């Protein structure tokens, strides 16, 4: 079928907030405040480690000395620098199955020997990790998205966080704790970061990455790394050779916004909107696609849907049929090296709550049409 011009497009594809939950006025004021308070710092090149006041704010947040922190143009830039430092052709890297498609792309572009480990509802299967290590695998790092994982929305349990760190210490690999969604929890109790569990300032086995894309807005493009200072110093050299310094204007605005009066309320508004949207998505899936299995997340942007494996589903056809009905989703195959034909990711962050049920209804029609 061809989509009618009257059909309202609904995109469950992009992991970004809708503009109505971004504090645009607050960001405008933060820009004015930043340029007023520090015109030289905002307009100069700066240094490769980032805008000094923001770097200090991050260090204080995580309880580490400032030389443990490097601020980048988004957390994907932080990922790229770290991969460039640690991964060469043939380097073994552990990652979750499924995992963020850009992570897979970055690792494969560098020739990594990527070993995907089953992702369970309470996080990466640490027993499977242990078996790989006992079998002789010697990874340089394990990439984990521990909180509201992309694409699944799952969270790594405390017991598994502790066990993964034990394995890292025993076998001498780094845990790359990629954690951009941690601050958009809307239900449940927060868990300690693995950076904290490994000693914070004394941590030797964790490199932590985060971003302000999910708590402020994605257009700001500010992320950061926290890790052992010797490693951060090496990454700093790469950053210097790449761009001399990251975007001081963006980082200065982020700092002014974080330290201003509006940020706490704005973050609560984001979390409240996400909670409402995931509630509507949960209800709509149960109504219109009852054969689907999924776990309702306690935060973040994403929900992973699996259809019965023995029912002959083809997610590529589902994506096409959904697009014909004005609905965008992302195929599960994008997040795996193999498999995923019966799965897809739904991002609810950008979908207005009034559009959720109609979008899922059309998606269910697409699922059934694809099988036919």
UniProtKB/TrEMBL annotation:
Keywords: Aminotransferase, DNA-binding, Pyridoxal phosphate, Transferase
Pfam family, one: Aminotran_1_2
One GO BP: alpha-amino acid metabolic process
Cofactor(s) it depends on: pyridoxal 5'-phosphate
Superkingdom of origin organism: Bacteria
Ranges for domain Aminotransferase class I/classII large: 12-363
A GO molecular-function descriptor: transaminase activity
InterPro entries membership: Aminotransferase_I/II_large, Class-I_PLP-dep_aminotransf, PyrdxlP-dep_Trfase, PyrdxlP-dep_Trfase_major, PyrdxlP-dep_Trfase_small
Zinc found in the keyword field: no
The UniProt record lists the keyword Glycosyltransferase: no
Name of this chain's protein: DNA-binding transcriptional regulator, MocR family, contains an aminotransferase domain
